[in-house]
């Protein structure tokens, strides 16, 4: 049996052992070896001060790393959930759009596949910032690319890429652009409504931002220009306004910038354009 003094030594050693970091605890051993002698109890108090400091610092260093890893996992899960919700909403929108075009504009299988191209572009224009990339690129059916660019913690798109996306949408809609210069003039006229500061940043010639955009084929020239905030650009409104201008030109007997060659463009008129606008809402 243990005497009173041996019991005190035993419980004191057990309490000290329980407060040691997990990586310094000894593996489980038979009961007889867990009862420390007075010599071992005394030797535990003779650790070098640097060793004690290292023992205290190691768990403190591990805890922040563990918390950071957990934070990253939580952020990734939230982003995945957000992307799944957006994908579901866009799928419902796409189904509604396809049903509308199929009922109203007599789509063939080929036309339906081109409408799917518009849907894929719409998904990118809606979700590109969620990729959290410095430059997120999207390959258009025309062979050109558009980019979502992160700069100064804000996402941007250039006027050049806006025009590229609209030209691609017109072609997928069955109305390829024939007069690109006149088409661009109309689009850039619409973009004047987006003001520097609120909707865009105004970059001086050959600024670091413009140099980066030029290297990545987002702009054709480094002259002074506006670069638009991603969420400030009304892509659907720009598409409808450009379409309306050409339909009015055709109605007036003047040359449009684009030509209807396939469905649904062949069935689209000024009267049905409102239905297209409702579908894109």
Automatic annotation (TrEMBL):
GO terms of molecular function: DNA binding; DNA-binding transcription factor activity
Principal subcellular localization: nucleus
Chain positions covered by the region annotation Disordered: 13-89
Segments of skewed composition (Basic residues): 39-48
Keywords from the UniProt entry: DNA-binding, Homeobox, Nucleus, Transcription, Transcription regulation
The keyword Nucleus appears for this protein: yes
Keyword Nucleus: yes
GO CC terms, sorted: nucleus; Ste12p-Dig1p-Dig2p complex; Tec1p-Ste12p-Dig1p complex
Biased composition (Low complexity): 14-38, 49-89
Subcellular location: Nucleus
One Pfam family it belongs to: STE
Family: Belongs to the STE12 transcription factor family.
UniProt name for this protein: Homeodomain transcription factor ste12
Source organism per UniProt: Modicella reniformis
